[in-house]
Amino acid sequence: MTAEMNKETLGFQTEAKQLLHLMIHSLYSNREIFLRELISNASDAIDKLRFAALADESLLEGQGDYRVQVDVDPEAKTISIDDNGIGMNRDEVIEHLGTIAKSGTAAFLQNLSGDQKKDSQLIGQFGVGFYSAFIVANRVEVHTRKAGDDAGAGVLWESHGESEFSVEQRDKVGRGTRVTLYLKEGCEEFADDYRVRSVIKKYSDHISVPVMMLESEPPAAEPEEGAEPAAPQYKAVNEATALWTRSRTEVSDDEYKAFYRHVSHDFDDPLTWSHNRVEGKLEYTSLLYLPKRAPFDLWNRDMARGLKLYVQRTFIMDEAEQFLPMYLRFIKGVVDSNDLPLNVSREILQRDGQVESMRSALTKRALDMLDKLSRQEGDDYAEFWKQFGEVLKEGPAEDFANREKIAKLLRFATTHTDTPVQDQSLEDYVSRMGENQDKIYYVVAENFNTAKNSPHLEVFRKKGIEVLLLSDRIDEWLMGHLQEFDGKPLQDVARGNLELGEESEEEKAEREQLAKQSEGLVERLAKVLESSVAEVRASGRLTDSPACLVVGEQDMGAQMRRIMEAAGQPVPESKPILEVNPHHPLLEMLDQEADEDRFADLASIVFDQAQLAEGGQLEDPAAYVSRLNKLLLTLSGR
Ligand SMILES: Nc1ncnc2c1ncn2[C@@H]1O[C@H](COP(=O)(O)OP(=O)(O)OP(=O)(O)O)[C@@H](O)[C@H]1O
Questions:
Q1: In this structure, what DSSP letter does residue 495 have?
Q2: Is 598 helix (H, G, I), strand (E, B) or coil?
Q3: 3-class DSSP state of 285
Q4: Known binder of ligand: residue 130?
Q5: What is 412-492's CATH number, 3.40.50.11260, 3.40.50.300, 3.40.50.1980, 3.40.1190.10?
Q6: Which of 101, 149, 158, 484 is the least crowded, having the fewest Cβ atoms under 10 Å away?
Q7: In the chain, how long is the greatest CA-to-CA distance?
Q8: Per-residue confidence (pLDDT) for residue 342, from 0 to 100
Q9: Which residues of the chain fall short of a pLDDT of 70?
């Protein structure tokens, strides 16, 4: 086959093309990051080979000195990043450098606004990777050969970063990948030795393989007369020790942050981190990071999650999911075990007792890290909560053992502040509880305003009893699993009979009298609404509204019911209880209504309105409108 014949020109996948275009335009002001991304890829490729060589040493081709080499040529205006890692074959090159494999990319791209500053942050969160080369280059060549293949299996990939790339066979003697960038006008600084060294120091110091450059300084000693001057040598520019193996006191915040970007592919700094070495029965080191921003695919079931796993400093796998529970899926980092076998697989991880112990210890570490952050001054915890609060709310259901710890980390909107901001802890709530109050009250609704204006809150507001205002989809599920905090049961104010611990003798007598007085009305209502409600009763919880719906003690809550219905799940039949406020003028009017038809119409309207007030949907909205209109017309006497 001639070179011409095997040269293929292919188009980038649409999404790759879009991302490329956006990246070039929105990341230009931050263009030096391309070097971090390419060195990061080179180091990953070396990690992969190191791991593959555990099973098949021949892949090393007798050469086990791993290194990344960076060369600059100011005249040709090029920079190249060369690794002796795993390399790629032709199919892999096409797949990895022509498409974007992550699911949800298209949806993500639609979120971009065209505002450069905002977009650059979004793109950063997506992980810019290889394509960032085109921020500074108008032509990129990748010459690669997979470890273990013949020199003849080398591939040359080339693109101008527009819509196409080409691939062709090109012999390559050494295994691994060499990426060469032909720099754009205005980006010549990246062919400058001094500038490139400083960027490597800044971003890649923590990378555990040496990143080498030709030494720039002349050798210290003058060569002896007649002798050849010593040729310049490649020397490591970076520190090249795995960061997590160093002691905490030796590592600066900047180094921790740079390492975070390497493991997470995030653009931003982390909010906080926790670095620990455990010795004793189990020996391992962990470095956990809390990101600042949720990834675009946080709610995608296939989202990449988990820690980078190393065994005795050898990289084993990315996204080892077994070390943290699902509700902590936003935590990034590294775990390096001294005890696990080097040939450990995902299957083994799933049933290994040691992994189980490490998982529970790491879960505690992560929760402690959050606890510590929550006690610090400043907005970091609030920021965390905004990004990840809803995920943490999955915790009590998934991890019963740590329920109390998680409960302390939760934040809510409450009637104490009456704003939608979720910033009050259960501890805060308990500290404000009245002497006779023995429960923590909450109301659940579709959205904050419905919760805040719920008729169920009227008596609580009147008595100054605080109620948590819940409106996240997961809230009812959360409360169902939490059940109590600090020994105090959590009580849905829209459920069951309301017994406020604070009822005085006087109030009790008043309530009983009310029930008696309204017996007739309640009975009439129960009769006409028989098919819609389980029971009608006189309410002690309403002051301003005519009526509200209450869920039976054992029945499914309204929010959960709506979610299940929307998801097409079967929902058990159950009717709500209608509580009415006999002091309300509407109910007084109803009581006086002698015409049974009009009574039935009005009763239905009261019932439908109670449903609307809690954010529910009417079964027959047209019937409601026509009843209401009929009544409205009677106002004008027509
Ligand atoms: N130097 C290299 N050696 C071998 N394979 C590489 C190299 N650089 C890139 N690749 C392959 O190309 C793929 C895509 O790289 P790219 O940098 O775009 O994304 P990534 O590293 O997977 O993730 P991210 O976009 O979050 O950085 C990599 O997953 C890897 O398989």
A1: B
A2: helix
A3: strand
A4: yes
A5: 3.40.50.11260
A6: 101
A7: 125
A8: 80
A9: 1-5, 100-108, 111-114, 116-128, 216-226, 499-503, 637-638
Q: Which candidate, 83, 104, 97, 82, places its Cα nearest to that of 20?
A: 97
Single-letter residue type at 585: P
Beta-ladder partners of 164? 11
Of 495, 518, 506, 483, the closest CA to residue 592 belongs to 518
Write down how long the chain is.
638
Q: How many CB atoms lie within 10 A of CB 262?
A: 22
Q: Are 20 and 173 in contact (CB under 8 A)?
A: no
Dist CA 161 CA 356 (whole Å): 46
Instruction: Give the distance (Å) from ligand 1 centre to CA of residue 591.
Output: 75
Q: What's the ipTM?
A: 0.96
Q: 102 CA to middle of ligand 1, Å?
A: 12
Query: Cα angle vertex 243, ends 242, 248, to 5°?
Result: 140
pLDDT at 517: 87
Gap between the Cα atoms of 142 and 42, Å rounded: 12
- pLDDT at position 218 is 59
CATH superfamily of 3-216+232-236: Histidine kinase-like ATPase, C-terminal domain (3.30.565.10)
- Within 6 A (CB) of ligand 1 lie 41-42, 45, 83, 85-88, 96-97, 127, 129-131, 177, 265
pLDDT, position 231: 79
Nearest alpha carbon to residue 446 among 474, 480, 473, 468: 473
**Could you tell me the distance, in angstroms and rounded to a whole number, from the CA of residue 338 to the centre of ligand 1?**
28
Q: Which helix (H) or strand (E) holds 111?
A: none
Does residue 48 contact residue 145 with C-beta atoms inside 8 Å? Answer: no
Which pTM was predicted?
0.79
DSSP 217: S
- Does CATH number 1.10.10.10 belong to domain 515-635? no
SS3 state of residue 239: coil
* Pairwise CA distance, residues 44 & 264, whole Å: 12
311: β partners: 314, 337
Residue 585: HSE in the Cβ half-sphere, 13 Å Cα cutoff: 0
Tell me how far apart the alpha carbons of residues 460 and 437 are, in angstroms, rounded to a whole number: 11
Task: Of 306, 311, 308, 66, give the one whose Cα is nearest residue 208.
Answer: 66
pLDDT for residue 104: 62
Q: Ligand 1 pocket: which of 94, 96, 266 to mutate (most atoms <8 Å of CB)? A: 96
Q: How do strand 234-236 and strand 211-214 relate by DSSP bridges? A: antiparallel
CATH class name, domain 243-385: alpha beta
> How many angstroms separate the alpha carbon of residue 38 from the centre of ligand 1?
8
> By alpha-carbon position, which residue is closest to atom 29 of ligand 1?
96
Cβ count near 187 (within 10 Å): 20
pLDDT at 301: 74
**Residue 90 has which token pair?**
């032709």
236 CA to centre of own chain? 36
Place of tokens 């970063």: 161
Q: Which atom of ligand 1 is nearest to the CA of 126?
A: 26
Domains of the chain, by residue range, sit at 3-216+232-236, 243-385, 412-492, 515-635
